[in-house]
Amino acid sequence: MQKYIPYGRQDISEADINAVVEVLRSDLLTQGPVVPAFEQAVAHKVDARHAIAVNSATSALHIACLALGLGQGDWLWTTPNTFVASANCARYCGANVDFVDIDSQTWNLSVPALAAKLQHHRNEGKPLPKVLVPVHFSGQPTEQEKIWELAQEFGFKVLEDASHGIGASSSGEPVGSCRWSAITVFSFHPVKIITSGEGGMALTNDEELACKMSILRMHGITRELSRLEREASGPWYYEQQTLGFNYRMTDLQAALGLSQLDRLEKYVIRRNQLATRYDELLKDLSLQQPTIQPDNRSSFHLYVVRLPTRENPNKHRQVFEALRQAGIGVNLHYMPVHLQPDYCRLGFSEGMFPEAEAYGKEAISLPLFPKLTEDQQDCVVNHLQKLIND
């Protein structure tokens, strides 16, 4: 039988191992010099002014929402086609969540649907969002400039969930530059473009937002003399100025991330090569392939196809299970968030976001990672071709 092919997999080099070992042999394992070095390197890579490293992208989303002032009675809007963290971050702050349906081609948040919903809420006197979280699904940039224009008209803050998107760009503008947003969040989970084991980062060009997030990730504590509320009583002095969290990244994680960052461009190029090869191999099959918008460069965290299920509603499950049984680790990204039981208890139900719901019944994420071989890719395509043609 074909050796198991996962849908995603980290690539760890000897340089990565050596970088982590160097920290292990140093005096500081947690809060040493490597975390700020990683922050500076990522900020430089994406042309942002400030970077705040944390222990996960979920933590980054949480402190970003708090820094933007999201709280009780406020609203956050996001897409149903995402991991639950993109919506949960609002609820951590005591805020409410609503969704905007997706585009049928890009599978990102639909800008026309967003504009229509904003106008409807304004006309009807319904609450508008304080924060919007567009998600760069699978690594394809969202239409950030158009979203930014709506943000200026309707008065909401933009928080980019670019957990899939480091290394992507739109019209040459790197995802993470925050040109069209207040804050952007990256993920460094092992199946993402680069990894720090677990980890995330918030990017911003606003010094005050950066300071707020930096304090929030460390129990709400600061030692900076310029920010103290009282006179320091000695060199030991620090202040808890707000209720914060232990969301810090360690030097061990940062060492791995910093080493991986050297290969970011190589990884994105390879992922795009594999995606282009999938495009060619699958072009004659009865399925929908990813659509990359003109001027976009996707980082291709995922390669997703959609199976037509109109004639056979069970086709999606049949193909998915058959691929798994053949040792091919396909996955579904994502089940619509609003149909999760916890969200249904908040009042969401089937039929509210039809594009996302249709997508969730048809989508399959095929294996895609830098060390995927052409033979493995051929194996995936051959199995898929047989299953679709049956």
Features of the shown structure:
Aspartate Aminotransferase, domain 1, seven-stranded mixed sheet, alpha/beta, three-stranded antiparallel sheet, Aspartate Aminotransferase, domain 2
Describe the overall structure:
- This protein has 390 residues and is α/β, with parallel strands linked by helices.
- The protein has two domains: 14-261, Aspartate Aminotransferase, domain 2, CATH 3.40.640.10; 264-389, Alpha-Beta Complex (Aspartate Aminotransferase, domain 1).
- The protein has 13 helices and 14 strands.
- It has helices at 14-24, 34-46, 57-67, 85-92, 111-124, 144-154, 207-216, 251-261, 264-282, 315-325, 341-344, 354-360, 374-389, and strands at 50-54, 75-78, 96-99, 131-133, 157-161, 169-170, 173-174, 183-187, 200-204, 221-222, 239-240, 296-297, 303-306, 363-366.
- It starts with 13 loop residues before the first helix and ends with a helix.
Strand order of the largest sheet: 1-9-8-5-4-2-3
Radius of gyration: 22 Å
Count of distinct structural domains: 2
From the N-terminal CA to the C-terminal CA, the straight-line distance is 21 Å
Proportion of residues in helical segments: 25-40%
